[in-house]
Amino acid sequence: MLLGDKQVKFQLDCGASCNIIPVNLLNPDTQIEKTEKVLVMYNKSTLQPLGKCKVKLRNPRNKKLYRVEFMVVDEGSTVPILGSRAVQAMNLVKIQYENNCGQYCHRGDHEG
User: Fold this and answer.
1) InterPro entries per the record (predicted)?
2) Which residues does 83 contact at the CB level (< 8 Å), separation at least 6?
3) What domains are there in the chain, each with its CATH number?
4) pTM for the full model?
5) In terms of CB atoms within 10 Å, which end of the chain has fewer, N or C?
């Protein structure tokens, strides 16, 4: 993805409920708002974000522009992450709900 004129590689994480970006990747003029949220990582560790911000990302393949909200973390805390909602909205990942029974399956629905 392009963040301004900078190419940034994001980890696509369908299990993530938010987007995360290290502060050093942001333009110095980016407004960072305070947040009381605490991030809980996949391994149950916690991370206090510096704040949150909205930035514009451009997909260089299709030239589409997206305005995305990120939780801002310290440099080196994690790689940049695009969460479930963002990757689906950008059509980078498609969830095949019809192939995923989850909590809505009734016994026997998936047999046959």
Assistant:
1) Peptidase_aspartic_dom_sf
2) 13, 14, 16, 17, 18, 19, 20
3) 2-104 (2.40.70.10)
4) 0.83
5) C
